[in-house]
Specification:
alpha+beta, 5-stranded mixed β-sheet
């Protein structure tokens, strides 16, 4: 059969591809704590509690944030596949692991922005090494990141180092008055590069100084599961947008989760910078697709 004669993709094909590629999303400690379930023209996102980091994440907050990132990734893939869809974010006590449902609604005209984000999704990788040569990001780049985060109603603030490392330090930290939005797998047991001293509070990324890092804090008005999910979506949107303009990035897992800030509840921090001269970071292994995607076939 020639390419022109190939059968069109079914709804199941489209949803499976979205779930498969979305699993390239970043997750806290590379835990990949998500499960997908395909039913007819819907794609359900569920938590995989067997992947919860119970020692550092007893509430499951970081698990849900990670699932928010994979949810946004799936939306990016569906858009580039030319389908429209709705997103229902769920919190049903009868199904406590069910987080969201994507439902296909018809065709979508693929845009240049759709293609740029999809390319970024395919090429983005976590880079914890020191960043080089740019003391602060240009305002036009910050404006681009602002627009990426805005749809999720999550606060995003640029932090001046030294960034507080504990909930107690947050109390004495002077937060910026300007909110940026206008309103197999796992982390290796040993680091890939030697440790360094750095101004930020987080995992040591490698040799050199990290003084050129831009830290962005994500905050929410509340501290509910819905807030955690949208934090992950906003972080994914910002990470992919940063990738489209050539920035390297990583997610900071040990952000103090406290609501005692003038900006609300601090949920997550990401770090951005330039690493153009550094060698590419190898991709992290992903979980097998049959382990994370379940297709429910009609009886």
């Amino acid at each position: 059969m020639s390419q022109a004669q190939q059968a069109p993709l079914t709804a199941r094909d489209v949803l499976y591809e979205a779930a498969r590629v979305a699993c390239l999303a970043p997750s806290i400690e590379d835990s990949q704590p998500w499960l997908w379930r395909i039913r007819a023209d819907t794609l359900e996102l569920r938590m995989d509690r067997s992947r919860q980091l119970t020692g550092t994440d007893p509430q499951g907050r970081l698990m849900v944030i990670s699932c928010g990132a994979v949810l946004h990734h799936a939306c990016v893939v569906l858009a580039v596949l030319g389908v429209a869809f709705t997103v229902d974010r769920l919190d049903d006590p009868a199904e406590p692991d069910l987080l969201a449902r994507l439902t296909l609604t018809g065709p979508h005209v693929v845009t240049a922005d759709d293609m740029r984000l999809h390319h970024a999704l395919r090429t983005r990788c976590t880079d914890r090494r020191p960043f080089l040569g740019v003391a602060s990001l240009p305002e036009d780049v910050m404006a681009l990141l602002r627009r990426a985060a805005q749809p999720f109603a999550v606060g995003m603030y640029e932090l001046e180092p030294p960034v507080p490392t504990s909930a107690a330090a947050v109390m004495a930290f002077t937060w910026p008055t300007h909110q940026i939005p206008e309103s197999r797998d796992g982390v290796p047991p040993t680091p890939a590069v030697p440790k360094i001293s750095r101004t930020g509070p987080f995992r040591d990324p490698g040799p050199g100084e990290d003084r050129y890092t831009t830290y962005l804090a994500f905050t929410t008005a509340g501290n509910t599961r819905a807030d955690w999910l949208t934090t992950g979506e906003a972080a994914s949107a910002v990470l992919l947008t940063a990738t489209t303009v050539g920035l390297a990035s990583s997610v900071v897992s040990d952000t103090p989760n406290t609501c005692d800030t003038p900006a609300g509840c601090w949920q997550l921090t990401i770090r951005l910078g330039v690493n153009e001269s550094a060698p590419a970071v190898p991709p992290r292994p992903r979980r097998p697709h049959d382990e994370v995607i379940d297709v429910i076939r009609a009886a």
